[in-house]
Specification:
The protein is α+β, with helices and mostly antiparallel strands. The protein has five helices and five strands.
Amino acid sequence: MCIRAMLLAIVLCMTVGTASAQSPASAEATAARVLDHLDAGDYAAVTATFDARMSAALDADALRAVRAQMEAAGPVTSREAPRVSQQQGMMVVVTRIHRAQASLDATVAIDADGRVAGLHFAPAVASP
């Protein structure tokens, strides 16, 4: 199984929005809840946070498959502090997740209404 190919294929539905009404702390909390729910296998809770485009692009069954493939890299050993930026009118939160056999960067884009507008997992790239 190629985790790298699977992770790069996951959808990221970022749309250009209005200026973000989310604070960095609020965005971090939303992203952490999404990752916590995904780790717990609570796909309904994850998809409940999605905006309309994300709901159309990524359902609970797809999330289940994503989680199963990530778990092939072993259990989560830790998460680094999230990095928050504002891009295209959204708050974008990147959290490095360390698993027993690989590290991943989870990117969660949050629109001005606090809805998840993008979710992407990719192999972690070494920092310069």
